[in-house]
Automatic annotation (TrEMBL):
CDD domains: AdoMet_MTases. GO terms for molecular function: methyltransferase activity. One of its GO terms (biological process) is methylation. Coiled coil: none annotated. Pfam families: CMAS, DUF7884. Keywords: Lipid metabolism, Methyltransferase, S-adenosyl-L-methionine, Transferase. InterPro entries: CFA/CMAS, CMAS, DUF7884, SAM-dependent_MTases_sf. Belongs to the CFA/CMAS family. The keyword Transferase applies. Its EC number is 2.1.1.-. Residues 12-83 form the DUF7884 domain. This is Class I SAM-dependent methyltransferase.
């Protein structure tokens, strides 16, 4: 039975190691402060049984308790994540653990479609409330660090399209096209003929509407389609924020499929999140377990070395690699700020449970990228054994 005495012993132990701007409020009206500074986060424990989440804390336990209503937590999400991580570290909960998803391999067409729809088919209005106007849901690119989100997202799209040297008339495939921003930009600014695919019905519907509104029907096609079912040849292929859903064991097959779709002399770019743990264990403090359960079912992160090996196994030659970890930390921080500034309005677009999930998820991602738990790499590749004559000798063309 957890009691106020248990909490007293716990708070004494925490204060001997840390000074946290945290207040714990009990069901009986009493409270405990873990610092002499004003509290930035308040955790209300509504019943004695809920103390167990605090006495042995991890990001998974605290996040789950918040989502399910076992604890009431008030404060900015960035502070909540930071304080939760420090509590877990003080209790020795930071060790990375094996990721059980590596053994499950549940990546059938049906399972993948269900996972994508769970995450993306909340509603288009939900995402529009905190993303940029183009609804770009991936790492932005900050040339100077002071750009607004909308500018940084266009920078990212253009950065990708310049890297793969898109030319007028070329056929471009965007795997996991989201709401169509990259496919449309490739057509509008670079003269490409674009095909974008997604498994999200909401994304496909809005992307098609946007294509029609922009008068790009003859240049851009949006399909509701699994990547395994694509046929044809493409001069350029982009995969942005997609391969995390493929499954580590399936990455060689994924890149083999991309290689088969790539025309001779073609170029592919894979832009995706990786783990920084060489054994692909879950992120520290249970953050990965929280995302697995509540945010991205069946998502898996590979280490960069695994990705490069899988690309080579798939018949591709890696030609350029760029780390954008700090760019994604900033992107997620900006998403978090947008989310919190429109918290009440977003709450009217979804249920309270999902609202709490996203509240801590976005801030948790910002913290994870900032602390090198996870990373983001853009990898440019072509068919192995080919002379990459279409790509300029110098990387200068990427940075006009």
């Amino acid at each position: 039975m957890f009691t106020e005495m248990s909490l007293s012993a716990w708070s004494t132990g925490v204060r001997s190691k840390l000074s946290l701007p945290l207040r714990v409020e009990l069901w009986n009206g009493e409270h405990v402060d873990l610092s002499s500074d004003p509290p930035r986060v308040t955790i209300r424990v509504p019943r004695p049984a809920s103390l167990r989440y605090l006495l042995s804390p991890s990001l998974y336990k605290l996040g789950s308790a918040y989502v399910e209503g076992a604890l009431e937590i008030r404060g900015h999400a960035a502070d909540m994540i930071r304080i939760g991580s420090e509590l877990a570290a003080a209790k020795g909960e930071g060790r990375r653990r094996p990721n059980p998803l590596r053994l499950l391999s549940l990546h059938t067409r049906k399972k993948d479609a269900e996972a994508i729809r769970y995450h993306y088919d909340v509603s288009n209005d939900f995402y529009a409330a905190w993303l940029d106007p183009n609804l770009v849901y991936s790492c932005a690119y900050f040339e100077h660090g002071d750009e607004d989100l909308a500018s940084a997202q266009l920078n990212k799209i253009d950065h990708i399209l310049r890297k793969i040297d898109v030319r007028p008339g070329q056929r471009l495939l965007d795997i996991g096209c989201g709401w169509g921003a990259l496919a449309m930009r490739a057509a509008q600014q670079f003269g490409a003929r674009s095909v974008g695919i997604t498994l999200s019905e909401n994304q496909a519907q809005l992307a098609r509407e946007r294509v029609a509104q922009a008068g790009l029907d003859r240049q851009v096609e949006i399909r509701l389609q699994d990547y395994r079912d694509i046929d044809g040849q493409f001069d350029r292929i982009t995969s942005v924020g997609m391969f995390e859903h493929v499954g580590v064991q399936h990455l060689p097959d994924y890149f083999t499929k991309i290689g088969a779709l790539l025309a001779p002399g073609g170029v592919v770019m894979n832009h995706g999140i990786t783990t920084t743990d060489v054994d692909a264990r879950a992120t520290p403090y249970g953050g990965g377990a929280f995302i697995d359960q509540y945010v991205f079912p069946h998502g898996e992160l590979a280490h960069l070395s695994t990705v490069i090996k899988a690309m080579q196994q798939g018949g591709l030659e890696v030609r350029d690699v760029e780390n954008l970890r700090r760019h994604y930390a900033r992107t997620c921080a900006m998403w978090t700020e947008n989310f919190e500034s429109r918290f009440e309005a977003i709450g009217r677009l979804t249920d309270a449970r999902r609202l709490r999930i996203w509240h801590v998820y976005l801030a948790g991602c910002a913290y994870g990228f900032a602390h090198d738990w996870i990373s983001l790499y853009q990898i440019v590749a072509g068919k192995a054994g080919e002379d990459p004559a279409q790509i300029p000798w110098s990387r200068r063309y990427m940075y006009p």
